[in-house]
Amino acid sequence: xxxxxxxxxxxxxxxxxxxxxxxxxxxxxxxxxxxxxxxxxxxxxxxxxxxxxxxxxxxxxxxxxxxxxxxxxxxxxxxxxxxxxxxxxxxxxxxxxxxxxxxxxxxxxxxxxxxxxxxxxxxxxxxxxxxxxxxxxxxxxxxxxxxxxxxxxxxxxxxxxxxxxxxxxxxxxxxxxxxxxxxxxxxxxxxxxxxxxxxxxxxxxxxxxxxxxxxxxxxxxxxxxxxxxxxxxxxxxxxxxxxxxxxxxxxxxxx
Length: 255
Hints:
The protein is mostly helical.
């Protein structure tokens, strides 16, 4: 029990220090921008199909949830508002973050762990270069940028699919749904969704990069250790997404 607690605190402390290191490099602008752009380009092309399919599925979920209240309370005037709240702020960003963690987070952890296992990070240090500037910060920043870039089109797809589901299955007018969004949804909802997505991307980027780099400080660098790093990064990412979402929801309700 004690060893587990110690590992948890040690992992949390290491993750916090990693976050401070990335923050320092980003604020001072001392991270590799070319590597960051390369990672953003590869990540967007890799995750776009997954996000497209996921957005359709999430939009269907939002539409079906809204139909329950639409049927029970005949709330046709506010269906669009409720669907937009779910797609833009609540259900949409959270499920989208899990999709990013599953697709890009695991890939990021695996690539970073392989760099450590094959002593590429040692080679970078031997050349007098900083691995944090060339590897850590670009990967974290890239995941944040990808999250922010995918959020607007994904949220729009979710909302359109929700409207179509409600129209086909529940007879809800698409025009009324669109009017409800225009009339009741404020710009703050979109900004809150963007803020959540940036935090989710930051969480996934830090967790998976830190998990991969943990092999660098370890003497065990076999294939099984790479798999363990990927698994650990996935677990920490999922826990981080849930925790960040809970804190954001509590702050939103308090405000």
